[in-house]
């Protein structure tokens, strides 16, 4: 059975968080679809790199993936937080107990800003947690609570992605072997 993840992208998404997560999941055999939450599949990242998403969100709304991934980026997360299709799709996945994985500013801006944390523990970048009222901020690099996985930011993207992969694969050994292959010392306390 193929494990599938949707990587939601909006104009201004954080380049490295999105691409590193995509790369690691693909290396571990997890199929990742890049989903544009804009009117075009062509998007510019936070650092003005043009990428072409595989699909547009309007074409995906009746589907469920095993996980939805939200990278950070100031403009990208503000745009995701204002995209009703994205928010409804995230909420539907959450309701179905699919993994919702958010990194950097996405946990606070997209989820917390729309009451989608639902009292769960999370982490985000900087002091954005001070503006969230429906979650419990936890000062760790990666936090897992129920079907919600959050990461502090760019500096922990490897740990975030490998942890997410281990949860999707339902085992950690394969993720650890791949991490060692690309010379990344995993925070083994996560596993």
Number of helices: 6
Mean pLDDT: 94
DSSP strand count: 11
Q: Which sequence of SSEs, written as H and E, runs from N to C?
A: EHEEEEEHHEHEEEEHH
* Cα end-to-end separation: 24 Å
Derived from helix and strand composition plus strand pairing, the structural class reads alpha/beta
Strand order of the largest sheet: 5-2-1-6-7-11-10
The biggest beta sheet is recorded as: 7 strands, mixed
Helix content: 25-40%
Structure description:
By secondary structure, this protein is an alpha/beta fold. The chain is 32% helix and 21% strand. It has six helices and eleven strands. The radius of gyration is 15 Å and the shape is globular. The two termini are 24 Å apart. The model has no long low-confidence stretch (mean pLDDT 94).
Detail the topology: elements first, then pairings.
Elements: E1 4-9, H1 15-27, E2 31-36, E3 42-44, E4 50-52, E5 55-56, E6 67-70, H2 74-81, H3 84-95, E7 99-103, H4 106-111, E8 121-122, E9 136-137, E10 142-145, E11 148-151, H5 157-169, H6 173-181
Parallel strand pairs: 1-2, 1-6, 2-5, 6-7, 7-11, 8-9
Antiparallel strand pairs: 3-4, 10-11
Helix pairs in contact: 1-5, 5-6
